[in-house]
Every structure is written in C-alpha cells, then in structure tokens.
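[09:14] KT: can someone run the structure on this one? pasting the chain below
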Amino acid sequence: MSTAVETASSAVIVAIDGPSGTGKSSTSKAVAAKLGLSYLDTGAQYRAITWWMLNNGIDVTSPAEIATAAAKPVIISGTDPTGPTITVDGEDASGPIRTQEVTSKVSAVSAVPEVRTIITELQRSIAAGAEGGIVVEGRDIGTTVLPDADIKIFLTASPEARAARRSGEVKGSDLSATREALILRDAADSGRKTSPLAKADDAVEVDTTELTLQQVIECVVTLVEEKRTAA
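[09:31] RB: done, structure tokens below
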C-alpha cells in the first residue's frame, strides 16, 4: 500500500518546450528514462497527421480541407522513453514522418485550429493516463496543452548551434540552408494564431548553446528532482 502512495506522490508532469534543434527530444527521452517517467513527443503527432494528409490526397495548402479531414486518422503514441512508437491507422509511422516532405509541411498543417484541438485533446488524455508521471515535449505544452504541469522547461539555443546539430543529424545537409529553414519554422510556429511557440511565464529557460547533451540532461533532471523533493 505504501508503495502505491509513494508512486502517486512522486508522479510528476514535466513540460519541455522550445524550437527545433535545442536538444528537446534527446533530453526529454533521457530525462524520462532516468526518472522512470513516460515520454511523449507531441511533434511526432503533428508530423503523423501531416503524413496521413499527404498520403490521402488532402490539399495541405487548404486549411478548410485540412480541418475537414483532421478527425479521420487514428494516431496512437507509445510512451516508453527507451523505444517510443507512433502508429497511424495501425501502421508504424515512426520512419515516414521524418521525411523532408513532412518536415516542410507540418507547420502549415499544425497551424489549423481543428488539428490543434484534436491533437491537444489526445495529448492531455495521454498525460492524464500516465500514472507514474510523464515528460511531454513540444512547442506549446507549458502554455496551452498542460498549463498546470508540475515543472515547465523552455530550451533555447542560438540559430547557429541549432543548425549545426540538425545538419549533423541529416547526412549531406547544407548548414546555411538548415539555418534558414529553422528560422522560417520558428517564425511560422511563433506567429501562428492558435497555440504559438512561446515560453510560459513560469517556465525555467535553459540555453543549450554551450552545453553538451549530457549537461542539459543533468540540468533538467536536477530541476525535476528539486521539484519532486519540494512537493
């Protein structure tokens, strides 16, 4: 009985936001694994719905078409940080959602309010069902999806550092083109009317420009553990 009480009291919801290339995914997965928490990559869900739209002939330049189709795909996210999964209508989408085509279209699809409403509800239900606690990463988690999260962290880094990291992930990519693409994505995500990329007022900002991934992970783990102890 005491174990159940301890587990419940140590359950913590961690919101990690920030733009692309700040180390968000790597940090979130590692922190969740280290602290025994579930993990949710919300960006993968927006990529999944974008991939489904592209595969099903939806005109992704038409907000009306996107809105009409938004409720059709069934997206299921596995929350094991050591092996997160995502399926769309039962099909493994973890590889296909990372293509350049999806990357170039995801901002437009995710800006449609009907899409955000559906995906936000999905994210909230997953977080609510994570009995031992969860790390949720994205762009509007601390501000919109989980405004009552126990701890909110906003990762930042210079455009140059972020571009270098992204170029390192993609073979043969052009550094300056990657930097320009990141800046355009930031502008699209920060400027959209519905749930823009933004730092919550009560979020702890961590600039990862000069930090190694391990240092960022240790920093976030410390912040979460301090919150748990205080609770």
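[09:33] KT: thanks! Confidence is low (pLDDT under 50) at residues 1-9.
[09:34] RB: yep, looked fine to me
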